[in-house]
Design a protein that fits this description.
- The chain has eight helices and nine strands.
- The strands form two sheets. It has a six-stranded mixed β-sheet with strand order 5-6-7-3-8-9, sandwiched between helices. It has a three-stranded antiparallel β-sheet with strand order 2-1-4, with helices on one face.
- Helix 5 links the parallel strand 6 and strand 7.
- It is globular and about 75 Å long.
- The chain is an alpha/beta fold.
- Helix 2 crosses helix 3, helix 2 packs parallel to helix 4 and helix 6 crosses helix 7.
């Protein structure tokens, strides 16, 4: 059953490499994810998005603040499902066995978990691949199995950490459409992570733009465009441009460390050319 998710002033840090201090990764994040909504965290690589998801999932605990499900500070392990960027299927298990694994951990009897896992895989278009091993499936099929394995356990909240980023464009956009159809039917509560503006606008009810480390919320954008959306729709393109304004387009780096490194490379190249001459 879907639930709402609330983060109140959540912060997280880790010890520095020299052991003399701590580096803040997440700083004072307050966010509400309404029940049944699709909310996307949009931020660059290394900005702490995955750290935030691990804290929400219960794999780690924040240094301060609180994480609430339906307004309650309850244990989150087992109630929050996570689909990661890496397709972490067990290579020695078939698609059906991988999908049913969480149900087995929950103690569901074998006949029931086989029936339920089979139903999910058939709904995902994988009815002919139940007994195939991960090595025998395409990347898109493997990610469908990973999603089915998460959904079949009926978590209250579903976290998705760049689940389509390792796939080619055609497979990725196809899975986005498939997952939106699935979400429209089930209305689960989704917190999705991406660094792609187009993906965020295409999928989301709300887009949360994240600042670089230490991560904080820069802007929350309510996406009020009707569904289904077309990627080439002028309203979609206009909103993408607005989101990009807050997110920041890529620019050539010009900080002192980079300048120093480039100077060293240029000097080394000149030295080698002089030796050859």
């Amino acid at each position: 059953m879907a639930s709402d998710l609330t983060l109140n002033h959540v912060s997280k840090s880790y010890p520095t490499s020299d052991g003399k201090g701590r580096k803040t990764i997440i700083e004072d994040i307050t966010l509400h994810v309404p029940k049944g909504s699709f909310v996307t965290l949009l931020g660059g690589n290394g900005c702490g998005k995955s750290t935030l998801l691990r804290s929400i999932s219960g794999m780690e605990e924040p240094d301060s603040g609180e994480i609430l499900i339906d307004g309650k500070a309850i244990p989150r392990l087992g109630r929050v499902g996570l689909v990661s960027q890496e397709i972490n299927l067990f290579p020695w298990l078939t698609a059906l066995q991988n999908t049913a694994f969480g149900l087995e951990i929950q103690g569901m009897p074998a006949p029931e978990r086989k029936e339920l896992a089979t139903a999910y895989l058939r709904a995902f278009g994988l009815g002919n691949y139940l007994n195939h091993y991960p090595r025998e499936l395409s990347g898109g099929m493997r990610q469908k199995v990973a999603i089915a394995r998460t959904l079949v356990t009926a978590p209250d909240i579903i976290l998705m950490d760049e689940p389509f980023s390792a796939l080619d464009y055609q497979t990725r956009t196809g899975l986005q459409c498939f997952f939106l159809q699935l979400w429209a039917k089930l209305r689960e509560t989704i917190l999705f992570v991406t660094h792609e503006v187009e993906e965020a606008v295409f999928l989301s009810d709300y887009i949360v733009v994240i600042n670089p480390v230490p991560s904080s919320i820069k802007k929350i954008i309510h996406v009020e465009l009707p569904r289904p959306r077309r990627r080439d729709d002028p309203d979609v393109l206009n909103l993408s441009a607005e989101v990009l304004h807050y997110y920041g387009a890529g620019t050539c780096m010009a900080d002192q460390e980079l300048k120093k490194a480039l100077d060293i490379l240029a000097a080394n190249k000149a030295k080698r050319e002089a030796m050859r001459g």
